[in-house]
Design brief:
The chain is built from 21 helices and no strands. By secondary structure, the protein is mainly α. It is globular.
Length: about 375
């Protein structure tokens, strides 16, 4: 009986708290949303599963979780804590991104820049709620709707908030089709949603090859802190556009990004141990993240309307919402909203311009914030 009693004390069930049960339920709900609603399944399935893994209690003397030095998950999580995984994901994103839509209409880059306003307004809000400047900067980057960038910056400035910030960022990325449409409809008129834009011009191969080099020099010159993110993004893109490294580009946009996404998702999910995650600070982060994402969406739409006051060839303001860097989901939302008003008005190619500009913009914003906060 003593042996049986001792065994029962070592089980996870005997040590499970109500908080662990709540987090396991959240992890399962993430997977349900991903599988039944198709909300970012490549992200939410591994993250949801990781949340379940991280909330099964272990024995104190056994290193099992991401916070237990020597455990398997501790070493996987090392890639998150040290900011290794985000640049690798950017490499894959670069290898699958076509910048030609942005190059064909450079003025649409401004929409990607305008959407970053959510980052800085949320930073101010986080400071008001009592977060330190470094913590506020890490929380604000959620408004870029770019999970890897949010993880990268928080790993440098606020590693103790990494789990909450990562889960918030990826949650709102997954909810792009839910959050953005009401804001877009509220801020535009039917006449504006019916605007048809000119087809993009043809972009030459030379332009596509030169752009990653020029983009790297300008972006990293403005924000050296963004070097690892934009550097890997543009490296992936030049592997794609050069047409002589197709094997490398194919590896980056398929096998590599898939492996890193699995490892990042599971380890980030496993970091949400109830005793660490269920705090008032986490609730504030989720609230500020929602505000940041809404402001970023509104900022892109409203700036498109402002640009139309000075442009002869009008911009459909629906594509302004794609300035957040949730690639390509926010561009697809612009397309969906446009087709609802006019089944023949295809906005996807136009929306991809501010969408990829938003990726670069959020990385530069992260680099700027890192440089400012470490001084």
């Amino acid at each position: 009986m003593d042996i049986l009693f001792n065994f029962l004390q070592t089980t996870g069930f005997s040590q499970m708290s109500l908080g662990n049960v709540v987090m396991i339920a959240i992890g399962i709900s993430f997977m349900v949303l991903a599988i039944t609603k198709d909300y970012e399944p490549l992200l939410l399935v591994p993250i949801g599963f990781g949340i379940v893994l991280g909330n099964i209690p272990g024995i104190a003397s056994m290193p099992l979780g991401v916070y237990d030095q020597g455990s398997v998950f501790y070493y996987i999580y090392f890639g998150v804590k040290q900011g290794i995984f985000p640049p690798l994901i950017f490499l894959g994103i670069g290898a699958m991104t076509d910048f030609s839509y942005m190059l064909s209409s450079p003025k649409l880059i401004l929409l990607g820049a305008a959407a970053q306003i959510g980052i800085f307004i949320t930073l101010i809000g986080a400071l008001y709620l009592g977060f330190t400047p470094a913590e506020a900067a890490s929380i604000g980057i959620i408004g870029g709707a770019d999970g890897p960038t949010a993880i990268f910056l928080s790993s440098k400035l606020a590693p103790h908030l990494l789990g909450s910030i990562a889960i918030a960022a990826y949650s709102y990325m997954a909810l792009v089709p839910v959050i953005q449409p009401p804001i877009m409809k509220l801020l535009t008129t039917k006449k504006e949603r019916l605007i048809r834009m000119r087809p993009p011009r043809h972009v030459s191969k030379a332009e596509k090859i030169i752009f990653p080099l020029v983009g790297l020099i300008i972006s990293a010159g403005i924000a050296p802190g963004a070097l690892s993110l934009v550097g890997m993004l543009f490296l992936g893109n030049i592997l794609k556009e050069s047409l002589v490294t197709e094997r490398l580009a194919n590896t980056a946009r398929n096998a590599l990004i898939d492996i890193v996404t699995i490892l990042l998702g599971v380890s980030v999910g496993a970091s949400t141990k109830a005793q660490v995650f269920l705090t008032s600070g986490s609730l504030k982060i989720f609230g500020l993240g929602a505000l940041s994402f809404a402001i970023a969406t509104a900022g892109g739409v409203l700036f498109a309307k402002l640009m139309n006051l000075f442009l002869k060839d009008k911009i459909n303001p629906l594509i302004g919402s794609a300035g957040v860097s949730a690639v390509p989901d926010s561009a697809r939302v612009s397309q969906m909203m446009g087709l609802k008003e006019d089944p023949e008005n295809h906005l996807l190619m136009h929306a991809m311009a501010p969408n990829v500009a938003g990726v670069i913009g959020s990385a530069i914003a992260a680099g700027v914030l890192w440089a400012v906060m470490v001084k």
